[in-house]
Amino acid sequence: VSHEVLLYVEGLTVSFDGFKALNDLNLYIDDGELRCLIGANGAGKTTLMDVITGKTQPYSGMAYFGQTHNLLNKNESDIATLGIGRKFQKPTVFEQHTVFENLELSLRMSKAILASIFYRMSSEQSDRIAEVLDIIGLSKQSNQLAGALSHGQKQWLEIGMLLVSDPRLLLVDEPVAGMTPQETEHTAELLTSLAGERTVVVVEHDMAFVRSIAKKVTVLHQGSVLAEGNMDEIQNNPDVIEVYLGES
Ligand code: ATP
């Protein structure tokens, strides 16, 4: 079975005052994959996400989404419109609004209809919100204020806020930082259930979590790909061993 590449990044270099945060980086992610990106602090993970989402423009290289969409020289909202959603590490839900309202607001913002006083949610949209509530496991909390949720629940709500607009690619930064073991387990189930139908890229430092979710892991080091493979391959890779033992 040949897989279709959804995210195609080649020769990407990003320099900050001569320092290469990304250095001739190549990355290919298949449609439907759940890929984990790991690497020490400063390896370039955030910079890579910034390029994919239009926050940073590279000095050289290319980045394509779904074969035909050039991601470079587009702004962040253009890229969101293409179907790329990004979840930052810290949850930024609207605390004074209910869980349902958070999802509704997100849906309206994604369609730029926030300001319309004539706006009424279609039954299709409210069905989508109900569906997302079910996916993220917060149906029972629908009418609860987001500010009253646990840390883990806020993270799931924020993933839900991306899901309402049905992105093809979800970029998720350190989803389990600060979570309880139970919350971490739920997050693993959530992210693995999202892959397949969509593509999920997770940046994470928690190696037990990475092992529990990813079939394929990419290790970044000094702005390039150091190794790629499943967790066992990564842990037995001589380059990875050398870098990690050398750095500790
Ligand atoms: P972490 O795990 O700490 O988030 P990371 O792998 O995401 O690390 P990046 O944030 O991509 O790493 O940073 C890569 C390198 O580029 C770091 O050395 C960082 O200091 C540098 N860098 C990132 N952004 C800028 C910037 N705007 N100006 C100058 N240097 C930057």
TrEMBL record:
<keyword id="KW-0547">Nucleotide-binding</keyword>
<dbReference type="Pfam" id="PF12399">
    <property type="entry name" value="BCA_ABC_TP_C"/>
</dbReference>
<keyword id="KW-0813">Transport</keyword>
<keyword id="KW-0067">ATP-binding</keyword>
<dbReference type="InterPro" id="IPR027417">
    <property type="entry name" value="P-loop_NTPase"/>
</dbReference>
<feature type="domain" description="ABC transporter">
    <location>
        <begin position="7"/>
        <end position="247"/>
    </location>
</feature>
<dbReference type="InterPro" id="IPR051120">
    <property type="entry name" value="ABC_AA/LPS_Transport"/>
</dbReference>
<dbReference type="InterPro" id="IPR017781">
    <property type="entry name" value="ABC_transptr_urea_ATP-bd_UrtD"/>
</dbReference>
<protein>
    <submittedName>
        <fullName>Urea ABC transporter ATP-binding protein UrtD</fullName>
    </submittedName>
</protein>
<dbReference type="InterPro" id="IPR032823">
    <property type="entry name" value="BCA_ABC_TP_C"/>
</dbReference>
<dbReference type="GO" id="GO:0005524">
    <property type="term" value="F:ATP binding"/>
</dbReference>
<dbReference type="Pfam" id="PF00005">
    <property type="entry name" value="ABC_tran"/>
</dbReference>
<dbReference type="InterPro" id="IPR003439">
    <property type="entry name" value="ABC_transporter-like_ATP-bd"/>
</dbReference>
